[in-house]
Amino acid sequence: MCEGHPAPRTRGDQTWQERAACAAAVEATKDPDLFFPGTLEGEQRVRLAKGICSSCEVRETCLEAALECGDAAGIRGGLTEEERRAIRHCFELRCDPARIAAALAGRDVYLTRPERQELIRWAAEAKTPTLRLARVLKVSEAHAKKLLRREHAYLEAPSAVQATCETASA
Questions:
Q1: Is the dihedral of CA 111, 116, 119, 123 positive or negative?
Q2: Residue 109's beta-bridge partner residues?
Q3: How far apart are CA 86 and CA 45, in angstroms?
Q4: pLDDT tens per residue across span 124-158
Q5: DSSP character string of the chain
Q6: pTM as predicted
């Protein structure tokens, strides 16, 4: 694991919320809807909410949790609904080796589609047992077997294509 990067948050873990700046902010205590501004006095409330988020030690975790669950309401991780919508695509393309390693180690972390595909590739290369892969991905053993079969075929394809090209040129 890289220094400075915390271990990936497990799915359903909300303990980080206790350390959130908004949990102790006086402004949020006085106005529980501060992080869900309406359109009337919205800009000023958005600035105030973002100001609280800017000093928060769990801001990245909050944003990640919002993106993972598709939370579209309010200000989360220092970003408005529109700002989160704009980065969702990039988030879904993330492929973090630390998250993949954590999942293979048995931690229940959210994996994006590219991370899941990379995990399957790693599992195929490492000859990971089908049952273990099924548990990590939370799929049936039959489906995990199919995924591994497909990945093995993909891994073997370049050499088969190369042999076909060499035969054709001879």
A1: positive
A2: 10
A3: 21
A4: 988 889 999 999 998 999 999 999 988 877 767 66
A5: --TTSPPPPBTT--GGGGG-HHHH-HHHHH-TTTTS--SSSHHHHHHHHHHHHHT-TTHHHHHHHHHHHT--SS-BTTB-HHHHHHHHHHHHT---HHHHHHHHTT--B---HHHHHHHHHHHHHTT--HHHHHHHHT--HHHHHHHHHHHHHHHHHHHHHHHHHHHHH-
A6: 0.69
